[in-house]
Design goal:
Layout: H1 2-14, E1 18-20, E2 25-38, H2 40-44, E3 49-50, E4 58-63, E5 67-72, E6 76-81, E7 89-95, E8 102-105, E9 108-113, E10 116-121, E11 129-134, E12 149-163, H3 167-175, E13 177-180, E14 186-187, E15 203-204, E16 210-213, E17 216-220, E18 224-229, E19 236-242, E20 247-253, E21 256-261, E22 264-269, E23 277-283, E24 291-294, E25 297-302, E26 316-321, E27 329-335, E28 342-345, E29 348-352, E30 358-362, E31 370-375, E32 382-385, E33 391-396, E34 399-405, E35 411-418
Parallel strand pairs: 2-13
Antiparallel strand pairs: 1-2, 2-12, 3-7, 4-5, 4-15, 5-6, 6-7, 8-9, 9-10, 10-11, 13-14, 16-17, 17-18, 18-19, 20-21, 21-22, 22-23, 24-25, 25-26, 26-27, 28-29, 29-30, 30-31, 32-33, 33-34, 34-35
Length: 419
């Protein structure tokens, strides 16, 4: 999907360097993000429902019984009528400016909107209503000298010689991307709200940054976990705590939160929902990794590759026994090629392998996955199962494709929502 390609491109370009020993400088190609400001109150008062729009820059995906929600990065969420999986139809666009992440719990949708979290009643997905808004829960508003609020960035590719001892080079060296404010000063990446930086009780993918547990919403930002109380009509931020900068995914399971970072999988006890505490950490080789806990096991996909956002040479599926959450243990490690998202379908585990296809494992014994299919005909990044029908939805470079699963694990194409 596009977010993978952009970051990979930035990293690749950063590695193409030519050095000048005399000047102590280095020639780099990177992306420069310049701040855009505006009236945040005007943004907050925009109507929620708009006419269906073209899908341009897809993000989060959520699959329900008769509809699909597809995020449009920084703009909102497309509603797709999927009552006929062979003919999905766009029926509404939920206008949520600044949105990247969202989560569905029952008939409510929780979505980032710049600095805020909005709770939207989606009982009627074609005419949604605002249930609650928690302002500035992710960050305090960043303003310019005209009292306008930061609402995003424009991106320009640049190539220039940079002093290796400068702050500019230090920022570029992390991701190949820098941010600048209205005075053209560098904004440290750690100071950029997560909504600006480059799902559910039914079925979301495993690449999640929002979870819901015990009437509380948990959101992974750039370097912290934000906790929001959802017990009353109005949501309230009730806490936050620091996380490593490389934390990528969150999944709730049995009153616990499973957090995946590039170097570990951590279990947080959420029995006190406002102050969660780390109870276990499984360290692994540095990688990009979703985490999928289910039926007293946790599956972790580790993905690395040279010249990528996850450099290294470890690609594997790890199986942890989590029956005793105080003392999980690794029970299996299976070699993979480039694992991304995962989903469980009855006794089968589907693992997207990106350009390397889709692998299906028999997990009737949850601790002992056995490979039963290695389909190279699809390019699979995230994989989501339909909540009731025998359908598998696969997010790839050409869109979200729906397949019926045959008796021999063969995929029968039904439709595509093009990206």
């Amino acid at each position: 999907m596009k977010r993978f390609y952009f970051l990979g491109l930035a990293i690749c370009m950063l590695t193409i360097l030519s050095c000048s020993k005399e000047s102590g400088s280095i020639n780099v190609t990177y992306f420069e993000a310049s701040a855009v400001y505006g009236d945040i109150n005007e943004v907050r008062n925009q109507p929620l429902n708009e006419n269906p729009q073209s899908l341009v820059n897809p993000g989060k995906i959520y699959v329900a019984e008769d509809y699909i929600l597809v995020g449009e990065e920084e703009q909102g969420i497309h509603v797709v009528d999927n009552s006929d999986p062979e003919n999905p139809v766009f029926t509404n666009f939920i206008n949520v400016p600044g949105n990247r992440e969202f989560f569905v719990k029952g008939h409510f949708l929780y979505a980032e909107s710049y600095y805020d979290l909005v709770k939207i009643d989606i009982s009627n997905v074609d005419q949604v209503t605002l249930a609650s808004r928690a302002n500035n829960v992710f960050a305090d508003e960043i303003k310019n000298n005209q009292d306008e609020t930061l609402l995003g960035f424009t991106f320009v590719e640049k190539t220039e010689e940079v002093d290796v001892n400068s702050n500019l080079y230090n920022e570029i060296s992390h991701t190949g991307l820098i941010y600048r404010d209205y005075l053209n000063n560098l904004i440290p990446r750690s100071a950029v709200p997560s909504s600006f930086a480059g799902n559910s009780d039914q079925q979301s993918g495993t690449v999640n940054r929002i979870a819901h547990n015990n009437d509380h919403v948990y959101v992974i930002g750039l370097h912290k976990l934000t906790v929001i109380d959802d017990t009353n009509a109005d949501m309230n931020k009730v806490g936050s705590q620091g996380l490593g900068d490389e934390t990528e995914t969150i999944f709730s399971y049995k009153n616990n939160l499973f957090l995946g970072s590039r170097s570990s999988m951590s279990i947080y006890d959420a029995s006190n929902p406002t102050v969660v505490t780390e109870s276990y950490r499984f360290d692994h080789a540095t990688s990009c990794d979703p985490v999928l806990p289910t039926d007293d096991v946790a599956y972790i996909s580790l993905r690395t590759a040279d010249f990528s956002a996850c450099p290294g040479n470890i690609n594997a599926l790890i199986v942890l026994d989590i029956e005793n959450l105080d003392s999980p243990k690794e029970v299996a490690e299976i070699e993979m090629q480039s694992p991304y998202g995962m989903t469980i379908f009855d006794d089968q585990l589907f693992v997207g392998e990106g350009v390397n296809g889709l692998k299906i494992f028999d997990v009737s014994n949850r601790q002992n996955p056995i490979l039963i299919s290695d389909d190279k005909s699809v390019e699979a990044y995230d994989v989501i199962k339909h909540p009731s029908a025998d359908l598998i939805l696969i997010a790839g470079p050409n869109g979200l494709e729906q397949f019926e699963l045959g008796a021999d694990q063969d995929l029968q194409f039904k439709s595509r929502i093009s990206f």
